[in-house]
Amino acid sequence: MSFDLRLPIGLMFSVFGVLLTVFGLVSDRAIYQRSLGINVNLWWGLVLVVFGVVMLGLAMRGRRVGPPREGVRL
Amino acid sequence: MSQVQLGAIDYAILIVYFAFVLGIGWVLRRSVRNSEDFFLSGRAIPAWIAGLAFLSANLGAQEVIGMAASGAKYGILTSHFYWVGAIPAMVFVGVFMMPFYYGSRARSVPEYLRLRFDEKTRGLNAMTFALMTVFSSGISMYALAKLLELILGWSFHFSVVVSAIIVLAYIFLGGLTSAIYNEVLQFFLIVLGFLPLVLIGLKDIGGWNGLTAALVPVATDAGYPAGAWTHSWRYLGSAGTNPMGVEWFGMVMGLGFVLSFGYWCTDFLVVQRAMAAESMSAARRTPLLAAVPKMLFPALVILPGMIAIALHHGRGGLLPVGADGTPNYNLAVPTLLAHYLPPGLLGLGLTALMASFMSGMAGNVTAFNAVWTYDIYQSYIRPGQPDRHYLRMGHAATVFGIVASVAAAYATTRFNNIMDMLQLVFAFVNAPLFATFLLGMFWRRATGHGAFFGLLAGTAAAALHHGLTLPHGSAPGLKGGFLGSVLQIYPSEMAQNFWTAIVAWTTCFVATIVISLLTERRKSDAELTGLVYSLTPKVRDDDQAWYRRPGPLGAVVLGMALVLNLLFW
């Protein structure tokens, strides 16, 4: 018994992404002086959301298609 | 350096991470039914997962912190640990050695040695490996707890206990599968947690061109040619013109051939991940798939060190400076994290650091419990018990391994010198190993006596060489020269280490051949089938697509590594 590892990976990064994006939207601009004035939480949060959703999508597709066939077993 | 205050958002990220790591262990607890499930994941792991775990198990906090420190100290020369060291070795283990490791159905590297040679060679390897993994996991636990104490003000005890309990919990529940699944999760976290740091740092300093320009004064002020920090090969002609103090031969032979092949091809910590793969084909592809991200890792772990030293030099004192005037290179990554990342991403970066530490520690613990249970307990203490007994032992060994690591971490706080000495002894034991495996796998005449005494001779040669040489500017003691007279002074510690390895390997290689020829061969051809190259039927894979075949895949990987070497020549 095991499960599709892409599921927890996708979930965790989606959660991180949402946390960072929301924090980026509500946080005080002054904290971004360190990061050269760029709201890195917002941008990287969005990157993580995209990564997480792609992983989740792959996991869903994997569930529909069934596990990928490994070539000839030796 | 001033301490960093974490906000609620940073703690939220850390807690989410802990929840996922423990959750994976919890879900996988049902997958462990017998000892092979616990120690080898029931040999059912797909190649891409085994590959990323192969990478991640080696990517402990010491790798992240240490490679950045070397990046600051030596610049892009550090990439030789990857492009000359790890990559060719990973291709070699995948293409040439995995057929014997996986094909022999050995459950561990020491067990392969018993099948191929004899009991005493296995015993020697199992004992030293078990001790070594416990101590190195303790030392890295110590390093992480010290670091968190320094940058966050967390108590040393708190960091040690929390990290130990979490790693213990998920390995105890799901065995190797849980460790491997978490290693893959941790791999992505390490990449996505450190990448923003590199991107912001590069943007700040003006890209690669800006970094190259900023590193010129770093090199010239230290008395090296202007490009010494940004060229990996150009200044390797002689030891005096590059900050590592190594010439190309010592680099290629010592680091590339002996040390890296020794580590990647014989260390059970990494080989275990490939042994857990679902088929021979997946096992052989494991190190090859791992090699592709591996060769890009310098951008993630070495570049921050280079950026840190450039900023330190150009903008005045970014890194804390020690009493002797040299910057504390080990703080390159933590300093940059605090320098660039606002709350939020800071939490992600620190979580990535924790993740790298946990993946390294879990790697050590899972390798330890397998070797302890199969190669020591089952072989010498209680043989012939039902499988359930050994599964219980595996659980107990996990607890014991972690408790011993914690003890080693505390021992390090009190007796730093003893730990340095132990690491030195382990280096002597490890240096000759690759010669034994090479001869074992490719020369059927190699005997058990040859392997065992060859290993001892190699270890003795390493100790002798170390004891009779010194790196430039060091006093006799742990750094070498402890045998009284100093025959040779190397330009740097690194050069001394590489040459110690070369001497140990050569001695072991020659001694194994000579002793094998003088002793009687005990294993028949039939017994060695599947263990030695010339007696093992070739793995047929012509019917598979080229990108599933180890040969073509290995060639592509080597080609990519060559391009990287040329780009940063």
Q: What are its keywords?
A:
A: 74 residues, mainly alpha, 2 helices, rod-shaped, disordered C terminus, B: mainly alpha, 2 strands, globular
Short summary:
The complex is a heterodimer of chains A (74) and B (569). Chain A is mainly alpha-helical. Chain A has two helices and no strands.
Q: What does this 3D model show about the protein?
A:
The complex is a heterodimer of chains A (74) and B (569). By secondary structure, chain A is mainly alpha-helical. Chain A is 64% helix and 0% strand. Chain A has 2 helices and no strands. Chain A is rod-shaped, with a radius of gyration of 17 Å. With 569 residues, chain B is mainly α. Chain B has 22 helices and 2 strands. Chain B has helices spanning 8-28, 35-40, 47-58, 61-74, 80-103, 109-116, 119-152, 156-205, 207-221, 248-266, 268-275, 280-301, 303-315, 332-340, 345-381, 387-414, 416-430, 433-442, 448-468, 493-518, 525-528, 550-567; strands at residues 469-471, 488-490. In chain B, strands 1-2 form a two-stranded parallel ribbon. In chain B, α1 packs parallel to α15 (345-381) and α11 crosses α15 (345-381). Chain B is globular and about 70 Å long. The mean pLDDT of chain B is 89.
Could you give the count of β-strands of chain A? 0
Q: Sum up the overall morphology of chain B in one term.
A: globular
The helix-and-strand class of chain B reads mainly alpha
Helix/strand class of chain A:
mainly alpha
The run of helices and strands of chain A is HH
Largest protein interface, residues of each chain = A-B, 35 and 45 residues
- Span from first to last CA of chain A? 22 Å
Oligomeric assembly: heterodimer
Report low-confidence residues of chain B grouped into runs of 5 or more: none
Helix content of chain B: over 70%
Shape of chain A: rod-shaped
Low-confidence stretches of chain A: 69-74
Radius of gyration of chain B: 23 Å
Mean pLDDT of chain A equals 84
Mean pLDDT of chain B: 89
Query: Order of helices and strands of chain B, N to C?
Result: HHHHHHHHHHHHHHHHHHHEEHHH
